[in-house]
Design goal:
- The chain is mainly beta and 101 residues long.
- It is 11% helix and 39% strand.
- It has a domain of 65 residues.
- Strands 1-2-3-4-5 form a five-stranded antiparallel beta sheet, with helices on one face.
- The chain is globular and about 55 Å long.
């Protein structure tokens, strides 16, 4: 599992001073499936407390979002907006690999 050092802060409705502290890859299980899914867990610290947003990638069109801590009980739309506002962005464009051969 890889961790990203402190990343971004953003305006999140209902939370004060929200900032992402890490993004890591985690295995996730659901009641609906016997399979283990690959997920991203975005850890967040706010003035109201700590929490996380877990984004599980599925074979379907929409990923599954789950809130933990201060995000517990949030709707999928609200979790998606918070995840997009706080997730780390690449600081530089991807490196182009030279074509060899």
């Amino acid at each position: 599992m890889s961790k990203v050092p402190e990343t971004r802060s953003g305006e999140i409705s209902g939370l004060t001073d929200a900032r992402a502290t890490g993004l890591e890859r985690v295995p996730t299980r659901s009641r609906e499936s016997a399979l283990t899914l690959s997920s991203w867990r975005l850890s967040v610290v706010t003035a109201e407390g700590e929490g996380a947003i877990v984004l599980a990638e599925t074979s379907g069109a929409e990923p599954i979002l789950r809130g933990e801590g201060v995000f517990l009980g949030w709707s999928a739309d609200r979790l998606r907006a918070a995840y997009e506002a706080l997730r780390p962005r690449a600081e530089e464009p991807p490196t182009e690999m030279p074509q060899l051969g």
